[in-house]
Each structure stands twice: as C-alpha cells, then as structure tokens.
Amino acid sequence: MVPRYLPVRLKLMVLLAALLVAACQTTSGTHKVYPGDTGPEGEPLSSPPPPVDAQPLEPLLPLPQPLPDYPKSAGQISGAAVTSLMKRAQQYRQAGQADQAAGTLERALRIEPRNYFVWSALAQAHLAQKNYAQAESMAQKSNALARGNVYVALENWKTIAAARDGEGNAAGAADAAAQIAALQARLDAAQPTSP
Amino acid sequence: MAVNTRSIKIAAISVLVLLLSVAGVLFSGYLIKLDKEIRDRFAGARWALPAQVYAAPQELYAGLALNAKDLVHELQRLGYREDARLEMTGTYSAGAQRVDLNARGFDFWDGVQPPERLSVTFSGDVVTDITDIDKNESRDLVRLDPMLIGSIYPKQGEDRVLIKLSDAPPLLPKGLVAVEDHGFYSHSGISVKAIFRAGIANLRAGHVVQGGSTLTQQLIKNFFLTSRQTWTRKFNEAFMSLLLESHYSKDEILEAYLNEVHLGQDGNRAVHGFGLGAHFYFNKPLNELRPHEIALLVGLVKGPSFYNPRRNPQRATARRNLVLGIFRDEGLIGDAEYQADIKLPLGVAGSRGGGVERYPAFVDLVKRQLENDYKDEDLTNEGLRIFTTLDPRVQETLEAHIIGQLPVIEKSRKMKADTLEAAGAVTSVDRGEVLALVGGRDVRFPGFNRALDSRRSIGSLAKPFVYLTALEHPEQYNLETVIDDEPIELKLPGAPLWSPKNYDRQLHGPQHLYMALAQSMNLPTVRLGLALGPKAVLETMHQAGYDGDAKALPSIFLGAVDASPLQIAEMYGTLASGGFHASPSAIREVQTKEGKPLQRYPLQIKQVFADGPVYLLTWAMQKVMTLGTGRAAYSLLSPDTAVAGKSGTTDDYRDSWFAGFGADRVTVIWVGRDDNRSTGLSGSSGALRVWMRVMKDLHVRSLDNIPPASVEEISIDPESGLRADDQCLDAVVVPYLRNSGPFDWAPCAAQGSTSGPMQWLKDIFGH
Fold first, then answer.
1. Thinking of the domain B154-341, which architecture would CATH place it in?
2. Which of B263, B179, B268, B171 is nearest to B222 (CA)?
3. pTM of structure
4. Facing residue for B430 by CB, picked from A11, A21, A114
5. Which CATH code fits B51-147?
C-alpha cells in the first residue's frame, strides 16, 4: 500500500500515523477476550462498567464530498396511502388538532412501520402537544431508522432540541444544538452555494 | 217510614259517593304512580348498554400484500355475502384478480366513512388498485368496517346493540306486527278482540296456544314486571299499557320493543333486541337481513329457547316457514319469494355468533386495559365503542396452528390426547400492538387466560438478555469473543451447590459468543453471566419490559424467571424494535355511543438500549435460526426470510417456549401442562412447531439487516478471528460496534505478510 519511493519524511509521517492507530487499538476488543477463570464461588471477576446509554449521533465532520442520494421528502419513500395520510395529518396540524394529526400518523405507521419520515412527523406532532419525552423518543426512533439520512436527522435534532428546551433541559438542548450545527455544516459543505 | 226510607236512601248514596270518591282518589293515585314509573323508565337511557368491542379494520391500499382469496375470506368473516348485483351493503362479487364489493359505511374514530361500491384489483398476492365504482375514481386508502368481536356486559346481564326504527329493514316491523299483534296500529294498548280470540283458541285446544297480549303489553311485561301470571300483574299490565300508549307514539313503542325483546341466551349473556340478534345469529348488521332471516328472528320472539336455531334447527325451520307464510298472507312478500325462501337453509352463523364472544383471551386483555381508565358501570352501561388492535387474520392463523399442532405433537410423543396446553401472542414490531392472543387450546373458552396469567419459568428465553448485557460492553465482548464451555459449581449462601449442565450434558470446548447463544449452551452463558453479574442482567430484562419480582441470582441466566407469554412478547418486542420499548397495547381508541371521540391510546415508545448492541444480538439470534436450535423453522420459511428467535426449555421439560421476530411481527408460543408436569418437549420440538407455521402463514417480513451507524461490518477469518481479505477462503462478515473489531490481519490474508503494519516498518527501515 505504501509506495517504496516515498521520501523519508513522508515515510515517517506514515509511521506516526500507524503508531497512532496502533495506540488507539489498545482500547478495542479482539476476539481473544476470555471472561477469565471465573471461580466456582461465582464472583464476577471485575465489576462491569455502567451500561452504555442510548448514544446520540456522533458529531459529524463537514465532508467536502457529495452526500449519498438520501431521500429528502416523504413522497420519495412512501406509498400513495401513506402520502395521503401524511397530507391529512399536515392539515390537522395546521388546524391546531395535534392529537388528530398524531392519530392519523399512527395509522400511516401501521401501513409503513419503518417509514422514518412518518416517525419524524409524529415526533413533531408530539412536540406540538408538549409531550416532550415522546417527541424525543419518536425523533430518536426516526434517526435509528433513517440510517444516516442527513435531511431527516436534521429535522429530528431540531425536534429533540425543542423538546429538551421545553423540558427545561438546557444542557441537553445545547447538545442537540451542536448536533444540528454539525449536520448543517455537513449539508452546507455538500451543497456549496453557487457564486 | 217514608222519611226513614228517604234518609236511608240519601245516606246510602252519600256513602256510595264517598266510597266512589275514595276509590277514585285511590285509583288516581295508583294511576299517577304507574304513570311516573313509565315516564321515568322511558325518559333518558332506557337500557344499560354494554360497551362494544371492535377488531382493527382491514385497510385496503395499492401495494398491500393481500390476494383476492384473502380478501374474500375477510369479507366472509365480516358477514358479507356474494351477490353479483351489489345491491345491498355487505355484498361482494369475486373474480380471480378482482373483487367488487358494496362496502358498509362506518363511523370511525377520525371520521365517517360512507357506504360505497368499490372495485379492488390484484396482481398475484398484491393489491394494485382500488376504485370507487360509482364515481369511477381511484382511491388511495379505504377501510373495511371493523368486526364486532365482543361486548362488555355485566355478569348475568343483558347484552344488546341499540338500533333505531329507521335502521330496521321495513319488513321487520311490519312482519313483527303481522305475527305478534295484528291490531297494533289500531288498539289503544290492550286489545279486547285479541284476548277474546286467544281465549277461544285456548279453549278449543284445551291449553294455552295463543297469548292475547299486544306488543305494548309484552313490552310493559319485559320492562317492569315479572313473568308470573297473577291477576295483579295482568291488571297492572293493562293499565300501564294504556298509559304508555297515551304518552308515546306507536313508532316509539315499536322501536323500544325491537330493542327490548329477548332473542336468545349465550351462557350468562342474554341476547336482547334485533340489533344484537342480527349479529348473534347472522353475523351482520340488521339492515342487511333478508326476508327468511327476518322471519327467523320474528319467529324467535315466541320462544327463543324452544326455537333456538342452533340447538333445534328443525323446530326453528318450521317456525320460520310458518312466519314466512304469514308474511305472504299479509302481502308483505310475494308467493315466489315465499316459495324460494322456505327452501333456504337457516343460514345461522357458527356457534357463539360469528364475531361476538369469539376471542375471549383478547377481549379479556381489552377489559383489563380499560379497567385502568374506566369504572365497571361505564363499561357495562354507557354503550362505549372500543376500537382494538386485534387483527382477525393473524388471530385466525395463531388459533389454527395451536389447535392443529398440539394433537400432532401429542401423537408423535405418544401422549394421551388433550394432555398439552398452549398459549400464544403475536404483536407488531415497532409499536407493540397486540394483534392476536390465544389463552388455551380451547380457543373459544373464556376460562384461564394462559397468555396473561400463566407465569411460567422462561428457560433459555432469558439468554438473549445475558448476551445483550455483554454486547453493551464492546471493550470486553463482541460476537466472536471466545467463552469457555467448562463445568461450573456455584455455592450461594443458604442454597445447595448449583452445578448447571449443558442441555446435552456434554462439554464442547471454547465457543464463540454468538455460537454459545445459537446452540443455547448453558455453561458458557452462566460463565458470561457471572462475569457481568446477575444484577446487570436482571436490569437488562427489566429495561426490555420484564416486570416480575425475580431476584438477581445466577439462576436467572438460565431462565429461573417467571413470565407470561405476553410479557415475553413485550421483552422480545424491545429487541425486535432496535432497542425501543413499547408496552403491549390492545386498544387504539374509545368513542361514546354517539360516535364522538372520547379517548385515544397513543403510541408510546422509549429507547432503552442503544441500536448497536441490539443489532449485534439480533445477528446472533438469526444464527439461532440458521445454525442453532431454531433451524427447523427453515424447513418451512423461505431462506430469503431472515428471522431471529430463541428456544426455551425448562427443567425436566416442563415448558416448551419459542419466541422470535421478523421485521414486522413478534410471535411467542408456550406449550406445557397445566399441572406443571414434564412434557418431554424442548422448545424446538414443541413450541417451535407452532411458531414456524404461524410465521410462515403471516408472511413475516424479512429483517433488513442494514447496520446502524454505530456498527461496522468486518470480514474476518473464523479460524483466527482476525481481519480477512479476499485471500481468505472461509472469510465471514461479522458486525462489530464501531472501533471494536479486530485490527490485525489473519494469517490467510495477503496483507498479513506483505503490507501489514509490520511490513511498513520493514519498508521504512529495511533500506
């Protein structure tokens, strides 16, 4: 992989990079981890670290390369039935009937349970009803199903930020704002504004 | 004398007048009392109306996986009948790739859907289009009317479905009057003529063959009085009838009669009124009844038990034909219709009236969930409309395979018939809606509900929660981590020495973590659990939805935890939904009897596990199905359908469990004995037999296996567990949490010898 005619300085840089990667590796698991000689007394050898919490999206660095062709709107991945229900839900939202909107979106989810645009809209309907915990849960669910779709993730993090704000969770809202900024930066980098 | 006579006369008249006045006052008082009773009874709610419980409606839309045969089956279950003309609602006409129907309207939670004539076209097993025949326009989404699956009536109580006179087919009131009270529209509550006629008929026959009561009197009798034949009762009945007629119109009285009359008995439940009668005997709404069906119900008024069409079909047929004869004589039907109708079979729906009372285990769950929010009287009196999550197609599938497989298993194991019991639940992934529930092999019997109340030891169904706890620590564990399979002896204070064994009593040497789960090995699981601690594992179970009181002891790793099948569905549902928990819900909405929305039960979810570890666990649970204890399922399922699952077997083979999921359905099956004795069945040889048939018939959707952002797939060499490249012939792709996979190249990899990190060093310093 490393061409042999590279100048020595560059080789040293590669070496440094390799050492750095090797250093990082020490914390990662390999297949050779044994639980050890658990004695018959049955005491755990080491107390396990606290369980990993549900992880938020890792902050994403702005990448110059174009984004994958993520669907931008519900219409791109939804059938006619779900599209029509989403429109109806939108009308309910505009009429201030958030619970009717949520009921209609739930009906849509029964038809397409993994449609992350529907989950995202449902999160917003819950936000409109001040159901902050559910707004965040539904937005997280949408993120989990969206598998990296930046457009949807951005909407969901806006919902999460507003929900945490509504709950009076300032630190959480700031975390969400950082996610929004990172996602926005990634979008901006991918779509440079033409001069 | 003359004076005396005169004063006696005056005195006598005075006394008479006085007596008459007193009698008049007393009589007026009596009438006023009766009058008040009648008005009170008729004002406001005349009946306690049991809540009505509906299944989920079938949604129809282009793209739905449903073929023409399935739709026809669905329509028949709803009591639709074939009729190419589609004149009435509740009719359909079926072709190979097209079904036309005259859909009933329904007052849904989110709006009224009017009746409409629809044409549904199919391409193979998928709906391609729905067109409104009359408007000739395509429809995105249509709901069929939901099936009425039960009602919540008080113990020993009356059940009824209230109707308006205008809902009734015109033949019903006319026919009823013709048969029961010919002079109804002309008499004033009692009919001297009728009493006289009945008297003569009874004298001629030498015993009572005819009653002289008018419809009004019958209504009064049912409403206020006992059925004892006493003079006081007859007297009261006559005056109350007269009073009722003075306050209310003939139509109001007739409508009340149609709703009040007793038409049959179903165990403790008394079937009252023609509205419920139509459902109970014919599984359809009243307005769709045809003349011979109306005649049967009208005939039942005379004696619902004596003419019970299910128990005494011959008597019922004779009675129906007699009534049809009266219909013809009165000019209500033509002679041709009469001749045709008397030849028709009774057409009564199967026992327990089609939908009503058909799914006792599920309706039991609905009642329990309602009890959190409603008082008993609200449920039995207010006529609430309860919209539930039951999917009749899924329910039918679950029932069919429990009923079908138990005798097969018993026979193959040489057990006595009816030794085994079973329970099962199917829920929706991502939402936790209960789609089907079976509480025992006698699926219609409203007895012990094993799906909810039988909390049995879960055996190896607990193992995934041990492995999930491990996989939440990527710095220590991944799917390829090797665990020893060696004997363990454990001495806990106050307990005998515990020395668990593998299922096959053998030792298998060190095992990869995923394989230890796939083969359901006990010793590696206990070893892993001990390293994690029972507290952490129990906490994982609680997060998934376990709400029992098991103690944090090492025995929980092997499933010394009691849970009901529905609770297992909840816990496995959390795994199936990528770490999001939803409580199992059976109710979607509640409406008042007028159709106003009262309460919605919104979807509620909570993320309890990160998506990465759950993805890894699900990968291992798919190995259960392809390499391990669940692999028999692929004798039925298509190899393209990825499903994840786990078998469960408890000590001495007392309980046989199988739980698992695809992308859309979670299914849990338990097989065992009520006396908790050994069945000799493992999870694979018992419950799996039912599970795999249910999943196949549900056309369970394949898991999509798209890793979340927190997971990376790495090609490894299984021999060394290190990174593989295309030089490694046996390389397999294994998911790892990001940055937790192996770093070094396997010996088989080209990179290992020429361009690994060590090679770079040689390149740099070798010159």
1. Orthogonal Bundle (1.10)
2. B263
3. 0.85
4. A114
5. 3.30.2060.10
